[in-house]
Amino acid sequence: MSNIKFEVPEVVVERLPQYLRALSNLSESRVEVINSQELGDLLQITPAQIRKDFSYFGKFGKQGSGYDIKHLLKQLRQILGLHKSWNVAVVGVGRLGRSIISYPGFQPQGFRVVCAFESNTKLIGQVAGGLLVHDFANFKEVAQSEMVKIAIVAVPANAAQDVIDQLVESDIRAILNYAPKPAIVPPDVKIRNVDPVISLQSMTYYLNEKD
Amino acid sequence: MSNIKFEVPEVVVERLPQYLRALSNLSESRVEVINSQELGDLLQITPAQIRKDFSYFGKFGKQGSGYDIKHLLKQLRQILGLHKSWNVAVVGVGRLGRSIISYPGFQPQGFRVVCAFESNTKLIGQVAGGLLVHDFANFKEVAQSEMVKIAIVAVPANAAQDVIDQLVESDIRAILNYAPKPAIVPPDVKIRNVDPVISLQSMTYYLNEKD
Hints:
alpha/beta; two-stranded antiparallel sheet; 211 residues; globular; 9 strands; homodimer; 44% helix
């Protein structure tokens, strides 16, 4: 399967967790089978797109009989590497960083925030959200010993690029960036931005229109 | 301008806040002029796409001389309705809801969280993140008196659709949904999902590939 995976477009990979989420919710509601039309209705994605996305990974169901949700969930978790858990570091323990450390949604999905970092000497050595705060200067060493593969960045906008450069040098290949500034990373590093303000700003356009 | 606006595709509207964010960062760094190539490099969007997006709203610059950043920022803020501030309600004051109320990124961008709601009677009447927690049953009345136009949903997945239906009935037309479940709304209501887990899950695919 690994030589197939290299050809999968990134937009397809980005949709897989949405399928996973919708199917998990269905499974919790004890739904056992779903077809691409019904799944598409839930996610506002065309059934043809769903079938095409799944086709990158082989056959997930038989034409006409729909997908077995439990089987599909297991396949998707395997493809996405979610059959194991991932250790995560949070960089920046200001108000935002602390709320990320305490965010209740990560652990049940297999993401364990295991260490926290700061460059503010007043915060180093303190405890934030139950975690000892390490000096960011020691990131590489601590991250390696804690088996961290993913970093969450919660530093001010003007510090973000420097911190992210340092993470990349420390062999981090997946970064979730909460700093309100896009950052540049090499092609072999993945970065995603979490920015609720951007989401709000794309809705006020429509509210404004009506005033 | 209002009859032009109705024709703007939603994907274009969703890119405008990203332009705004990048231009604000440039302006803070005292950059005064930028061309579509440079802006495209920052955002990983083609220059042709940027020029096309801007063309929906008239001319923002002269061919060849680049965009005046201050002028462009002002125009974008006006188009997106960000020249005024917006009152926001948070529904659900569990751990996630309280961290949203305390999120430091909203206020500087003109989004003021002015009231909070719960249906858990143990939490109603308490204070969360400095706000009095109202009974969600009184949402419509309180939201109207507080001039709330936007709601942020931070309730458990299984309660989200009911809460969102209630918001829609209370004339809310813009919803930021932190519940880990997609919700269905009428076409005249905008909804955006904030879900850091989905973002993490789209990166583990690439980490998994290497193991």
